[in-house]
Fold this protein.
Amino acid sequence: MPDITPHRPPAPLLQRLLICFGVAALGLALYATMAGGPVPFVGQESQGAALAGPAFAMAAPLAWVRRQPWPILAVLLAQTAGAAALGLRAEQIWPLFPAGHLVVGLVAATRAPRAGLAAAVVTLAVQETVLQLDLFRDGGWARVLAPGYLGLTTCLALAVLFAWLAGTSVRQRREYGEALRDQASAQAVTAERLRIARELHDMVAHSIGVIAIQAGAGSRVIGSAPEQARSSLQAIEATGRETLRGLRHMLDLLRQTEPEREPSLEPAPFAGLTDLDRLVSTTADAGVEVEVRRRGVQRPLPTAVDQCAFRIIQESVTNVVRHAATQHCRATVDCRPRELLVEVVDDGPGRTATPTPNSDYGSDYGYGYGIRGMRERVALLGGSFTAGPRPEGGFRVAARLPLPPTAAAPAAWTPLTASTAEAP
């Protein structure tokens, strides 16, 4: 059975070099300070050479401090207390003090807040005890309470406090960065879900509306006008195939997790203002005449603006087909130097200021997702959006989309004449 136990990746070379340097520095510092005074367990004649082994042995545990900071801190504190119990002076083992402070900072930076606080308290207690006992052994309370040694005691406490605060600051910055990344990821997921919801709604709602109208018309005339019923069925088939192709493309993009995977052979269903002729044609088949008016200078548009303008017109026309109870609406596209204005109006009596739970008035009235999706699209581009009943009757949808000084798009607009069709 293969070994599936996760292995810790090797530490970077720089970290290993720093750890080796720290071990060597602590060993040399201990050797130098221990040699500055008598060592009870080493003979006076061989004291210099014999101290090298114990000094570097005491420093060796630092090699594992990155993986096990708590045990290494316990070892350093035990060494401090043991050396003092064997008769070494505080000035002979003082390098163990800053080494303990560094480990306190590491514990506070990499472990839970309680663990860091406990490490600081234990370290301060052990080091202060060793220092005060050494002072008391030399001169009693007079030496302990001397102003200079009180200052040394305060400095030792401040050093432990500083190490704990530094480690806590590092941990808090890391946790804050992780929280920001998690929040950004959550926002990205939410934005993507909303985008997919808008695309699905815009792609399916219009097609389903056309299919429903054509199916109803075909069922009413299937006995009396077979040719008209056949035309309705052909429109249903064409609309269904187009919607299925778009859904397959979207699902293919959503399931594509490998960058090197070949894309779908089907063309991407990009929808822009150049597709208005198709929209007018399918809407005419559903029995609604769409009059398209163009104003301003026709020029290439940014892809996002082009697609947003088309989706607004498509969703508005779909609502006219489904709810307005009229056979005519007007779509106006006004391209100005700094903005693109899109407006869709109808004069049907089907939509009033009092919505029903099945209507698609959007967030302005508390029902549906169509107008809500249009509002979100416009907001993402920094524009403004309004939708609501007109005083003279009917419904109006208007959007203002800002344009950069020089706009570029895959293709320029194509001339389009208004299409008309009688209701089937």
Summary: The longest helix spans residues 147-221.
